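User: Run a structure prediction on this.
Assistant: Running it now.
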Amino acid sequence: MPDRESHEDPSQQDSRESDAERRRRRARFLRELTEARELRDRVQPRRAKTARLRHAMRMRTFRW
């Protein structure tokens, strides 16, 4: 029983820290994802151009 109580208290206290850590991890992931996309666009310019044109076409035909 004491083990259970000791496990519950840190989880409640660390909830704010875990949220902050989760936000930091998410921000880092999004930065790395953006960097990877930029690298891919530099390495494969034709594919990047095609993807931009497709995206522009989708946005033009999208109805708000």
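The radius of gyration is 22 Å.
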